[in-house]
Predict the 3D structure of the following.
Amino acid sequence: MQKVKYCLLLLIGCIGLQIGQAQTIRVVNRENGKPIDLVTIRERGTDHGAVTNTQGLAELKGFGADADIILMHPDFKSHIVRLSRLLNRGAIVELTPLPQTSAYQYRNWALWAEDTPHEILAFQRKTLSITEPLSSAEVLGANHQILVAKNLQNAGSPLIRGYSGNALLTRLDGVRLNHALYSRIDNTHLMVVDPNNLYQTLVLPGTGGLQSSSDALGATIDFLTKTPAFAEGEYLGISSGGLLRYSSANGSITGNYQIEFNLPNMSSYSSLSYTKADDLRTGANRPKSHPDFGKRLSYVIRENNTDAVVNNENENRQVFSGYDQYHFLQKLRWSLGSFMDFTYSFHYSGTSHLPRYDKLTYTLNNTPAYAQWYNGPQLWLMHSLKTSFYYPSRWFDRIDITTAFQLTEERVNSRNFGSNQLRMQQATVDALSVNVDLEKAVGFNGKLYYGLELFSNKVESKALSRDIVTLREMDIQTEYPNNGADYNLANLYLSVKDQVSERLVISSGVRYTYTRLRSDFTDKTYIDFPYDVLVNETGALTGTIGASYRPGSSWKLGLLLSSGFRPPNISDNSRFFSEWPGMVLVPNPDLQSETNYTIEYSIANKSNSNWGIEWIQYLSFLQNTFTVAPFLFNNQDELNYEGEVAKVLALQNMERAQVWGTSFRGYWKTSQGIHITGSLTYTHGQNSETGVRLPHIAPFFGQLSMAMTHQKLTTRFELEFSDGVPRQELPPSEKYRQHLYSADGALSWYIVNIKNSYQLNNYYSINFNLENLLNVHYRNYTSGLSAPGFNAVIAVRANF
């Protein structure tokens, strides 16, 4: 009897062990058999869930034997299977991968072009390497699908759908960079992003991305830097790489070194970059009708304590446009099992003085207006911690919490020609942000995204006037409120993606935005402000709904309706600044938020991987758009500012405007290894009442390229072009910048480039590019700095 008892206990134990083992399943890639981690597994109709680890294993605790389980992963087709059948087949599930040609990482989720109704411009690390961008602004200008205006070599302002500056939302690794002092015109803040660290860059034109933020009226620009991976084995993995690049047009030298350490549950990535650039040399071949446009005939020097104008020996050398810059990035990543992941990032960027070439070339009565005008040194740093938790629950399958702190120091220094007084403005922004993003599977093919964003800014400003001879200093009126300013923002969003059928995907959502701005003008030592404190408190609900329909295996039709809302920030609402001689920009307490309503539709065909076309068209209705216009300050249209009489200007609301645009892109890969791509972009925008052109409407532009690969060599021929803007069509805001244009306005241009990349071996590659082969002088619309002339770029890249 005792033996029978022991045998019975042993049988029960074996059955329990078998059941325990049977409840552990393995998920692998159907194509290569490799395990898949972070697969979300849910039992239909219950809250039971699990996530696979790096070996593709998941323990299904509490799952019913006859339950239907749903397996989901952003890179694979969703799969549903009866658990009992799965166990009978060996407890192994094979998932079919989705095509990777149109998969991107946006925020914390996968973004599929086939399921997305709005336009996507993507710049991948591999394809960008051959272009050798000097700055992140040049990353956006790569392939000439976005027109970028430049006043500095290392910065630029993209012109997208009639917007620029702070109407374009910029994110870095999911953290908002648009702080309270982002300007409406110059997006010089892009310089803080090191192009050598970018893994992917996405641009979503328009207001359709609810996860972006409602103030992304023109576009969302999403920079994603490299994240270190975990080691697949048990041992320490070490990899490193570097870059050394030289450009002839500005004599610039760029060096970058990267090193990565990998352990099973911890990894590290470090990167250091430095760039030193001399004055930029522009093209010598100008239109016969404008043989002197853009020539730097003279410049100002200081000798014997006096400003003097000297002739420029090389009229194509844009004297005082050089700079130095350095970047440092440190990422640390560690995991707690297969459910929780932490990533800490530290970004640091600094510059030398950054001369504003557009200011230094401004003249009054044939005399330079300024002897000096330079930004910087600029300083920016960011600490961020991202916590990701993966586990199916009632409220989410994944939650990401990102906290960040940014410190920005901006300096603007200027001195009038013939004056000894150097005005030095400095502003500091402390920005703290928290982002909470949640994702939840709904049914078999649906997704729910929701979350919140909190963003708090504290601004401090100070200003001095220094006599450069005696070195005596005195306080002067600050550019931003003397006693400080605060800008706070809160966003709540909810978005749903529902795959109604194999052909139709519906996306919709809402977002509520609340902002509060407070500027303290109680210090009236230098300017008698007609108010003590400016407070702007507002909120708005915006939304979007779109559909992506595939009538066949190759066609895709997209339709999107969206609305946007952008309240004024401190740079818009509370700035007191003389941007040009004889003019002063003052705060406008009545400035209201601008809004945007857009309809966008698209047609795309990708019959196979060898060719494809895409056509996008949109129409936007704008209300209360910001524009600079004459203003009354203390009931006066003129103001005595620093001993000079200046006309009063302010940022004001335009009643109504419209922007209409279209773009076309296509590619073709031949059987001989030739890859042809092309794109065309046209934008038209005007004041609905006066018909006047809006400030940031880019002219018609496009590109055509042909790439060929033979063994280890890839060669690409490029043609880029842009139409001009007649002088009579320039918007009123550009009348203060007439020196940036020819007598006929913005000129049309075209250039030819040849870019080559040769893979020496598994470790080294060489890029050799010949840009602007015809040495054409050209200048992008609204730019104050002419583009490089003939430019030979050679770069050596190493990866170990």
